[in-house]
Amino acid sequence: MSFFKRVICIFAFIILLLSYTSCQAETVTSEKSSVTSADTSTKTVVFSIFNDNNPWVIALAKDLQSTATTRKYKFIITNAEGDSEKQLSDIEELLNQQPDILLLSAVDTETGGKCLEAAKEANVPVILVARNAQGLMGQDYISLIACDYEAVGYTQGMSLIRLFGDSKCNIVELAGNPGASNTNSIASGFRRAIEIYSNFTIVTTKNYNYSMREALDSMESVIQSSIDFQAVFCHSDVEALGAIQALKTAGMTPGCNPDKGEIIITSNCGFEDAIKAVMIGELYNTIDLNARMGDLVFNTIEKYWNGEVITPRILITFDEITIDNASEWIGKGY
After folding, report:
1. Nearest to 284 by CA among 258, 265, 260, 261
2. One domain, residues 171 and 192
């Protein structure tokens, strides 16, 4: 890559990251317990989660449950199992219990919007966790607590740009479930990164619904189709691990050196198995999305009950894990 192109690339990356965290957003790394005047033993917090089919989501649910138990809240969680209708039914049942607050991680943005409407009718305040929903920030819900997924996708795209430079990079995209806010944002951020480079092309996109089995099948299908590709852009470690398995089964080499014909895989989430794959050079990178947000979520709830002003969007920080720092992350994954 030319010096001028590198300067433009780095400058654009810095500007984008700064702009993402500027307007109506608070960036948070971690929080400890806050003091509330409310009697927590009388408070009920309910959580509707889109699925529990991967380690990151399981870690999120466990951290919220653990924090609720420590702070002596009654905590009820339901799993939508990736089904919009089930999530709407779950929400109805949860709202019938007259909870003090609803935590929502929606199957997709449309379903999330319907959940918000139901909560408003029941006069139950809502905090969105990890995923966005169709609604007005600060009006239909108190706050959205999540990573800036567009910045995550952008970071993945930039990592490929730095590695490939001016060389051809045909990309297979393994995406999450259609309509989910994180799926849309990760895809948008990645495309924003590569759009000005003519040597970077997404040659096919496969949706796998955050299922490793579906991701493995999708990758096998791509390989069998004889599509020419040099990289795989994964929306989470679920499909990255599936892609590694499919490539190795087909006699291809996932790795870090495209000049040797190795297939470069970029991913996110921060699974423990993904970090190990980064360490041995089979996965180029993964982005840790920080599932341990229990204290932050409950601090936000308590601030709301205490009448404090809540930022409509609270950004969770993320970290890129590469072969250079993977050893520091072993034991910290999900």
Report:
1. 265
2. yes
Question: At which residue do the structure tokens 């529990």 appear?
Answer: 52
Q: Is residue 203 included in any domain, yes or no? A: yes
Tokens for 252?
A: 């291809």
Same domain, 153 and 142: no
Structure confidence by residue, pLDDT tens digits, 175-221? 988 899 999 999 999 999 999 999 999 999 998 878 888 889 999 99
Supply 159's token pair. Answer: 């990592």
* Cα–Cα distance for residue pair 245/238, rounded to 1 Å: 11
pTM attached to this predicted model: 0.88
- Sheet containing 25-28: which strands, arranged edge to edge? 25-28, 313-316, 143-147, 126-129, 101-105, 44-49, 74-79
**pLDDT tens-digit map of 39-50:** 677 899 999 999
| CATH code (residue 92) | 3.40.50.2300
Full residue range of the structural domain in which residue 233 is found = 149-289+324-329
282 and 177 assigned to the same domain: yes
| Domain count within the chain | 2
Q: What is residue 169's three-state secondary structure? A: strand
- For tokens 């809502």, the residue is 126
SS3 286: strand
What CA–CA distance (Å, rounded) separates 144 from 130?
Answer: 8
